[in-house]
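Shipment paperwork, digital attachment
Item: protein structure file
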Amino acid sequence: MESIQKWIFSAVALGFIFLFIIVERKLRKGKDAIDMTTSQEDRSSTLFIGLAFGVSMLLIVASVPMNLLGYMYLNFFWAGYVGIVGMASGLAMRIAAAKTLGRFYTRTLKITESHELVNVGLYRYIRHPGYLADILLFVSAALASKNMLCLILIIAMIVPAYIYRISVEEKMMANKFSEAYTRYRKSTYRLIPGIY
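Attachment content:
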């Protein structure tokens, strides 16, 4: 029974990641939304996030043999369950954020001529709920894998990739929307209300 638990949570975590990828494809509407061409404003942030995603998925796969060998296995019964709840919450938040953005939900950072500042739904409180959702999803997947090395490395890759992405995106948005974005920044937080 214990050896089954050492891989079952990792399998569930990978299942959520693949579900995330499918949902991402379905939520993107229009050619701008699926276009992977990067603009100068992107500053390689899409590449860094893509690398963090790819390595994170490999780490979750690698957590199975590491756990079976007992290498840095998190032997807390609650870790896998908390991870699953976190992944489900992250996926739900990502869907809500993407639906709120609609046609402005793109893979790379870009501004179109008809671009509008979105400040409704989750965006009324935090400026980057989609990024918060992704961080929650991947960190929770690492927790669900029940492997400490996997958890540490995924946090070390995903969080800095998104902090960089946020800094690049906020410069781009400030250039486009100037005072409107300054007012929006003053009334919201980047990711976590009251903290950051």
